[in-house]
Write a structure and sequence with these properties.
2 domains, D-Maltodextrin-Binding Protein, domain 2, disordered N terminus, globular, ten-stranded mixed sheet, alpha/beta, 13 helices
C-alpha cells in the first residue's frame, strides 16, 4: 500500500518528466483498463468518467471500460478498487464521498482513503447548484432561509446519498443559518432529480453539470451556486456566499489507483489523462457542463484529499450527521 511517506518519491518521478515514462500512445498495460464509477449511472462522476474513457484507447493503447458499482455512498466500489491488483488495470473515479467524508461517516469503513489509494489525477472541481421546484415560492437564498423558518417541516432536500457534497451542502447551510430543511437521501442524483421535478421534494444542492439544463429550460428554479465565485457557466446565478458570507461547498472528481501502483505507472497514467483533457472536444464539454478542469501533480491531489477530509469531517461532527 502507498503511504503518505511515499509521496515524495512519487514527486521525484513526476519531476523526471516524460523521460521516466513510456512515449505517449504506447500501451500502459496489456489488457483493458476498468474504471470503476462508484455512483449511479447518469451522475457527474459517470459523465466525467465516460469523457475520459472514450478517448483512452488512443492514449493508452487499451480501451477503458466504465464499470458502474454504486452503493453505500460510493464506498462499495471504492473498497473493491482498494483490494484490486496495483497494476494499472483497475482505477477508481473518486469524489468526496469516497475519500473526504467516508471515514467520518463509516466507523467500520473497509479501506483507508489515504493509505489504500495512489492519487493519479484530479479531473475537475464542480460547484453545486441550489435549485427548487417551481412550486416553491422563493427566488433567492435569503427567501429560502426565511420561508423554511416560517414554514418548518415543509422543505425537504434530496441528495445523491448520505455523505455526498449534495447532502453536506445542505447541512452546512443549516449550521450557518438555522434554515429548517430536511435531508432525504436517494440512491443517486437521478432518482432525486425525478422527485424534485415531480414535487415530491422541494430542494436540491446538486452538481451543476447534472441539473443546469433543467434550470436553463425552466423546469426548475436556480437560486445560487455553492462555489466561492460565480460560475462562468452560469454567471447570472449568485453564490450562496453573497448571502451567507464564508459559505463554500465544492464537489471534485479524480482518478485513483490502488496503493502500491508503481510510481512510473502512476506518472504515465497521470500524463495520459492530462493529455486527454486538453482535447478540444473534452475542453468544450467541460465548459458546457460547468466543470472547471483541474491540473497539478498527484501529490497536490493527495493534499486536497487531506484538507477536504478535515473540513467535511468538522461539518459531519458539528451537524451530528450519521448513517441510518
Amino acid at each position: 500500500m502507498m503511504h503518505r511517506r511515499d509521496l515524495p518519491a512519487l514527486g521525484l518521478a513526476l519531476a523526471a518528466g516524460s523521460a521516466s515514462a513510456p512515449a505517449f500512445g504506447q500501451e500502459v498495460v496489456n489488457r483493458p483498463i476498468r474504471l470503476v464509477v462508484p455512483f449511479a449511472q447518469g451522475g457527474t462522476t459517470d459523465l466525467l468518467g465516460r469523457l475520459i474513457a472514450e478517448r483512452s484507447h488512443a492514449e493508452f493503447g487499451q480501451p477503458m471500460v466504465v464499470d458502474i458499482r454504486p452503493g453505500a455512498s460510493g464506498t462499495i466500489g471504492a473498497g473493491q478498487v482498494a483490494l484490486s491488483r496495483a497494476d494499472g488495470t483497475t482505477l477508481l473515479m473518486g469524489a468526496p464521498p469516497t475519500h473526504a467524508t467516508a471515514k467520518a461517516l463509516y466507523p467500520n469503513l473497509p479501506y483507508d482513503p489515504v493509505r489504500d489509494f495512489a492519487p493519479v489525477a484530479l479531473i475537475a472541481t464542480v460547484p453545486n447548484l441550489v435549485a427548487v421546484n417551481n412550486a416553491v415560492p422563493v427566488r433567492s437564498i435569503a427567501e429560502l432561509i426565511a420561508w423554511s423558518r416560517a414554514h418548518p417541516g415543509t422543505i425537504n432536500y434530496g441528495s445523491a446519498g448520505n455523505g455526498a457534497t449534495t447532502h453536506l451542502s445542505g447541512e452546512l447551510l443549516k449550521l450557518m443559518t438555522g434554515a429548517d430543511i430536511t435531508h432525504i437521501p436517494y440512491r443517486g442524483s437521478g432518482a432525486a432529480l425525478i422527485d424534485l421535478l415531480g414535487g415530491q421534494i422541494q430542494l436540491m444542492f446538486e452538481n451543476l453539470p447534472t441539473i443546469i439544463d433543467h434550470v436553463r429550460e425552466g423546469r426548475l428554479r436556480g437560486l445560487a451556486v455553492t462555489s466561492p465565485q460565480r460560475s462562468p457557466s452560469a454567471p447570472e446565478l449568485p453564490t450562496v456566499a453573497e448571502t451567507v458570507p464564508g459559505y463554500e461547498a465544492l464537489s471534485w472528481f479524480g482518478i485513483f489507483a490502488p496503493a502500491g501502483t508503481p510510481a512510473p505507472l502512476v506518472l504515465r497514467l497521470h500524463q495520459g489523462i492530462r493529455r486527454i483533457m486538453t482535447d478540444p472536444v473534452v475542453r468544450a464539454r467541460f465548459v458546457e457542463l460547468g466543470a472547471e478542469r483541474a491540473d497539478g501533480p498527484p501529490e497536490e491531489f493527495a493534499e486536497l484529499v487531506r484538507v477536504e477530509s478535515e473540513r467535511w469531517g468538522r461539518v459531519i461532527r458539528d451537524a451530528q450527521v450519521t448513517i441510518q
